[in-house]
Amino acid sequence: MRGHLGPACNAVGYVDREVWGINHLYQYPVWSRLKACTLSSPGSGPFREDAPTWCYASFEPEGLLSTISAILSGTIGIHYGHVLVHFKDHSERLKQWVSMGFGLLIIAIILHFTDAIPINKQLYSFSYVCFTAGAAGIVFSGFYILIDVWGLRMPFLFLEWIGMNAMLVYVMAAQGIFEGFINGWYYKSPDNTLVKWIQKHVFFNVWNSQKLGTLLYVIFAQITFWGVVAGILHKLGIYWKL
After folding, report:
1. Taking a C-beta distance cutoff of 8 angstroms, is the pair 83, 136 a contact?
2. Per the domain annotation, does 242 fall within a domain?
3. Range of 96's domain?
4. Do residues 141 and 208 share a domain?
5. pLDDT, tens digit, for every residue of 131-187?
6. Of 104, 32, 51, 47, the residue nearest 75 (C-alpha)
7. How many domains does the structure of the chain reveal?
């Protein structure tokens, strides 16, 4: 019998419920942001009146089966680093990265569009691992050409700074700790915060597009901002590490 990859019932959720028990699973699953669950999709919001029961169900986004896929993703990353260490020629390194990157992308596309294993971030499906790892290989190759082969290091220094303080940027930016702290201070209403004001008046209203405004907000107010912060910390010799 073929397995199911939808939110209502899937192997990831089934294994976690059997092993850990439903009381030990994440109580606010991402399913609640789907169109079937809320009219605010893809954002969060109140549930629809006709929302199916699985919208309310607990689901562990970092469960047992998805952890296996995450380990595979990390192993592919280690291989990219292995190539960097053991191959000294630019062409040999690029040949390894590009060939593997495109190979993984092709596998992901075939699995997804044949409905064999659709790309699904919440389940961390094998096709999702192949797609993200393949895309990472191609992007990494592009940066390698620009910085290491062509010597265009100066425009990308902020990426080096972020890498030097990767743990700080991950915790404060990717996990939303800093933004959450800022949002804790508001005027009259919880929706009237500095972050919301910047998003609305500097990005959304100026460009008259929420999608474009969101993209520019991420580029400038998050990536560029934390690049500058990481650069200042680098100049001060401050690094957050274990």
Report:
1. no
2. no
3. 64-149
4. no
5. 999 999 999 999 999 999 999 999 999 999 999 999 999 999 988 899 888 888 888
6. 104
7. 3
